[in-house]
Amino acid sequence: MNELIGRVLDFRRDVFPIRSDLYERLATDGQSPKALMISCADSRVVPEEILRAQPGEVFVCRNAGNIVPPFAQALGGVTSTVEYAVVALGVRDIIVCGHSDCGAMKALINPELLADMPNVAAWLRHSLAARQVLDGGYADLSPQEKHRAAALENVVVQLTHLRTHPSVAAGIARGELTLHGWYFDIHAGEVLALDGDTGHFRPIEHDRPVPVALAAAPRWAASPQAEAAE
């Protein structure tokens, strides 16, 4: 802990003076983050570093398993963070980011690991759909492959939960929100993104458009145009 405290002092002495104009602007004008990123609390996964984001550029929500409880089941920290990001801050992109070697996903596959952690076990119930998908379609995988598949399927499940939140559903209907599903490979430093058209994850690359889980476009199910197309 002393080492971390020392870094606080280093920040105040060495870093803040160089970036004082940025912090002054943020303190005066407030924040206008470009995106909300919901990621795992794992200390090896740092959203600001992955995104190379400056202070004020990304709104972050972290928890074990990068979980988004369905709206009707939990009115807690994640729900409040999502609502604030969309309604108050006006973010246009929401990223749900899983990662390799995720302890929450290991526990999801091996629930006996949670014998002494009842609260974590209860929390991971929001990922049970991912485990059911895993059990039904990934029976022949090695333990390592199954762990990776669990993390990927969990991202898909949490994106589904995210769409149950009223602020998100309304933003999607207006065409103001783009949803992203990511997977960060700690070993390779690579980010895979969910392609909503194919249902597959593929690497984010410089020379290709970044795949999105759900692109921003108006989605009024009862619009005259939709009814006329029937």
TrEMBL record:
InterPro entries: Beta_CA_cladeB, Carbonic_anhydrase, Carbonic_anhydrase_CS, Carbonic_anhydrase_sf. Pfam families: Pro_CA (PF00484). One of its GO terms (biological process) is carbon utilization. It comes from the Bacteria. Its cofactor is Zn(2+). Binds 1 zinc ion per subunit. Its EC number is 4.2.1.1. Zn(2+) binds at C40, D42, H99, C102. The keyword Aminoacyl-tRNA synthetase does not apply. Keywords: Lyase, Metal-binding, Zinc. It catalyses: hydrogencarbonate + H(+) = CO2 + H2O. Transmembrane segments: none annotated. GO terms for molecular function: carbonate dehydratase activity; zinc ion binding. The keyword Metal-binding applies. Belongs to the beta-class carbonic anhydrase family. PANTHER family: CARBONIC ANHYDRASE (PTHR11002:SF76). Reversible hydration of carbon dioxide. This is Carbonic anhydrase. It comes from Sphingomonas changbaiensis NBRC 104936.
